[in-house]
């Protein structure tokens, strides 16, 4: 029998007057009328959001959700902060190096106003924790490492079984840009999308496939061989420190629209489900809806601009 998930809970205490004041400046954009705005802020207040991964995207998104007024957040991550995380990850500092990411992020978010209840899963998402993590969630954000195949499959299976979860969003960054994509319960599954056994051993060929399957918009510079060479030399994935902020914005916008039932006409343009995704690049201003197909969406981007044979 699988063991139960270990959960550390930081209990929020609601002061209604303080809560309403701290979220008041967002309310105008949550509906067409005051009644709609009040009702949708209440939806955010009562929502439960699971953030799987407390790294460069997940940690800051958890903070953003709390600022929006979401008062129940679950955070899962088994990793500890390293010095190289300081360039981009909320909660990372010399003082927190070696500490569990989910616990540090939870503590910082809880300090915000004291009215957010946070459930921490310091073991991260595993087969024996995924169901408990998703249970009761209205929305799940998959910000786990792309190579955590078995763990991500477990999270997605739990999402599809959930009767309460409205959707699942994910985002990744490449170079100066970021994407966002959505999984629907009756749409393309992560397992079918990857087509990879969950217990597979990672190889350079598999890494290349996974990169193109979730980050398929090629940076203009440097070249892809140079990026892969850097990865091989350092053993790390290169991430521009400012790029995750684009993911934070995209995830938080879509999360708010979905939780408030505003994703769709006349309020907004829906995000298409996988394998389609939205991409924005701050260096080129390229943006739009693309589709993951295992290839680069913009092949020869480097060669086209730098005349490289």
Give a description of the structure:
The chain is of the alpha/beta class. Helix 4 links the parallel strand 3 and strand 4 (117-121). Strands 1, 2, 3, 4, 5, 6, 7, 8, 9 and 10 form a ten-stranded mixed beta sheet that branches. It has a single domain, classed as Rossmann fold, CATH 3.40.50.720. The chain has helices spanning 16-23, 34-46, 58-68, 101-111, 130-134, 149-161, 190-194, 204-214, 224-234, 244-259, 301-306; strands at residues 8-10, 48-52, 72-76, 117-121, 139-142, 167-170, 173-174, 177-183, 276-281, 287-291. The radius of gyration is 19 Å and the shape is globular.
Topology, pairings included?
Elements: E1 8-10, H1 16-23, H2 34-46, E2 48-52, H3 58-68, E3 72-76, H4 101-111, E4 117-121, H5 130-134, E5 139-142, H6 149-161, E6 167-170, E7 173-174, E8 177-183, H7 190-194, H8 204-214, H9 224-234, H10 244-259, E9 276-281, E10 287-291, H11 301-306
Parallel strand pairs: 2-3, 2-5, 3-4, 5-6
Antiparallel strand pairs: 1-4, 6-8, 7-8, 8-9, 9-10
Question: What does this entry show, briefly?
Answer:
The protein has helices spanning 16-23, 34-46, 58-68, 101-111, 130-134, 149-161, 190-194, 204-214, 224-234, 244-259, 301-306, and strands at 8-10, 48-52, 72-76, 117-121, 139-142, 167-170, 173-174, 177-183, 276-281, 287-291.
Task: Fill in the keyword field for this structure.
about 300 residues; alpha/beta; Rossmann fold; about 35% helix; globular
